[in-house]
């Protein structure tokens, strides 16, 4: 063991996660930034994630071990670790001082492993289960919608009892636990790279390729999956065009719905850019846009929205999830509608509200909101959650 129970000295923090995208995504970003921060503070992070093949590499955010794992159907290529044997072997070899789990599914047993050995355990809740189950039930199994909340409650109680601490990122994310009387909660907001994501990334040449002079340039950056409601940008652009408003959109993201979305967007000024490996390229896109649509109704934080704000780009977001907490006064929160036409009109209204504001004022407000969130603050909060020292200032 590297550190004692009081957090003195460097600690080996073994982190485990499922559903980590190969290219981008909020979870991948958080794992990378927290790992860098742990290393800067003098600790030793190790990340165990699923992949197609086994590997063991050193990165700037710590050691990364991949476990051969199957692709989960219908997720757009995401994998989950199903073999406990491989993970048990690694845990036995690594002898962690703390474990940090980013999964509700196949990795929950790690909490019992840790407790039996006196190892501190933290689970980070990246989704609000009651809202997610209800969304899927309403979409595919309306008759089961009433059972979604009791099922979520039972699973949440078990998870909270299994771990020493449950980390949530927003007040909205904590609600499904607080109403059950769960007390071992710790709120740790995510952060944003305020240097990479900055209004100085604005690219006039890129703007000229994506939109004509006078057009409102809208970007949507999200995984193209059911719970994200990625069709919202299509209906919003349709609504704007029907009102005679000149607008164009770029959809940055990929997933199982991409084909159907591209078909639905035929004839509309909407480009599908996929997910790129270059974060600087994403920053240029966000800084060049006039406004971002953050469509997801069950987001527990909304990192893409925060990155847009850091670029000086305001956000239109639904009021269902946590995005309103992140966006604050630097955007417009709209009430989502069950009817797709009405939903498109609502988001179009939000886009026009932002477009009516003086560009300099709306960009300044967006940047100021983003500056409330830093990875330094987030890392330090996570280290305190683990009961570990912060020996080095985290940048």
TrEMBL record:
Name of the protein in question: Glycosyltransferase family 1 protein
Residues in Glycosyl transferase family domain copies: 213-366
Superkingdom of the source species: Bacteria
Ranges of residues in domain Glycosyltransferase subfamily 4-like N-terminal: 25-190
Alphabetical keyword list: Glycosyltransferase, Transferase
InterPro entries: Glyco_trans_1, Glyco_trans_4-like_N, Glycosyltransferase_grp1
Signal peptide residue numbers: none
